[in-house]
Amino acid sequence: MPKKVLIIGTGLGGLATALRLRARGLEVEMVEKHHQAGGRLNQIKKDGFTFDTGPSFFSMSYEFDELFADCGIDNPLEMNELNPVYTVYFSDREKPFFIHKDLKKLAKEFEGIEDDFEKKAKAYLKQAGELFHDTENVIVKRNYDSLVEYAMSLLRVPLKHSPLLLRSMWQELNRRFDSQEVKVIFSLVAFFLGDTPFQTPAVYSLLNYTELQHDGYYNIRGGMYNITRKIVGLLEEAGVKIHYNTEIVEVRKKGNQIDGFVDQNGKIWKSDLYVCNGDAASFRGLIMGRKKYTEKKLDKMHWTLAPFTIYLGVKGKIKNLHHHNYFLGNNFEEYADKIFKMSVNPQKPYYYVNASSKSNPECAPEGCENLFILCPVPDLRFKPDWSDREELANNILEDMSERLDFDLIGNRVTQTIYDPTHWEGLFNLYRGSGLGLAHGLNQVAALRPKNKDEQFGNLYYVGASTTPGTGLPIVVIGSNLVTQRILKDHAINSHVALPKRVHQV
Ligand SMILES: Cc1cc2nc3c(=O)[nH]c(=O)nc-3n(C[C@H](O)[C@H](O)[C@H](O)COP(=O)(O)OP(=O)(O)OC[C@H]3O[C@@H](n4cnc5c(N)ncnc54)[C@H](O)[C@@H]3O)c2cc1C
Fold first, then answer.
1. In this model, does residue 26 exceed pLDDT 50?
2. What's the CATH class of domain 4-41+57-76+221-301+437-489?
């Protein structure tokens, strides 16, 4: 029976898998390229401000409960449900839309804009909810050993959902609603999958159900980085050693087993089992040398949009800004259809803003605000040169200053920009793609890179580009799936209690 596991990468997938395997009594060691844990779920501290680098909220909060329960620990995260779930500003409308889970309240927002909104939304969300419950356990939370097995699972999904396979999310919304505002707002969930609603299949309308009816959206008291901090604390207490500034660059193979991985300094890391939390597609190509994942082939795959992020600290309180805000223009179709394949900066960008100091005042000095601004942009295949990053940042800040009637540039105390070259360089995100491989029907379930290596019996994968996919709760599900595989493949059935003590934030 294997005794030791080496996990490459300390993103949420790697950390959650480490916790589950440690709870089964395995000795766990981790290597991480960056100087601190978390991957995309990271943190910047600068000039008295604290910023979460990537995720700012999540759905399916019960997946975190499941993770800790699986390890015999009480959930140490203070999860706050968002209410309203978010706010949307359109450039040609002064007042923002507040998006409430309560459909009666939401209908009030669309009064005079969408006739019979409540009735239409109920019907749309009913269909989305049925699809969610008909697929969550049957398709998503499953390991597949073959295409036949996947085909058999698909046969268990009621046929009534099949038209959604043939339409895009935008086409489905067009059938259901009349106003541009409702269609645009409901289609924003496509961007959480890292794509436009024109490319995203209508089956993902189930995400509207998760945000508006099911469990809603949550963030973490004290900042999202507390997820990383708490799990790392538990791992350290349980004796897991994490080696930072250590990048795996080469593999040692012996027959059908991995014999070790080599870091940038030539040190060989040996273990019984290995779990890679780096991108499951590009790691196979760039480190494992797989022919199916050469750069040429990786470039032909469908990748999610790249993030352009600004971490901005400002003097003063911004009255009109809420916790989660979308700032959109009035040319949605044209914008979303073209902008992500262009090699120039958008002049009137669409962007998302999270002001975590609104609910976590400790994240900014007194009387100040910390802003996380995210603008989806083309990945490095389409726009390799980001020397014009300041220009895009200024476009965004000028637009936002005007819309909020607050001089962000004049009141700027600190600013850090991550363009796609930073995201690629910091965490090995292929071509700077923010959420990993996209979720088109040819890149999901059994058709996504597997969480078990095709050739080597002691190598596994976890994270956004393997099954089931991207996003915090989905990656946590992925950590369960890979753990189940490892336990089954190696006949491990032990369980040890982890320390119960919860770290203070
Ligand atoms: C800007 C942004 C905003 C987002 N917002 C949200 C959100 O609001 N809600 C949500 O649910 N999701 C969001 N996501 C998606 C979410 O962050 C990811 O799906 C999730 O964090 C991915 O986790 P992962 O396990 O794949 O690990 P990753 O975060 O990819 O971490 C992998 C780790 O492995 C390390 N690594 C890679 N290669 C090597 C190597 N060769 N050697 C050593 N170490 C290596 C990396 O440095 C990294 O630390 C967002 C993502 C981004 C980029």
1. yes
2. alpha beta
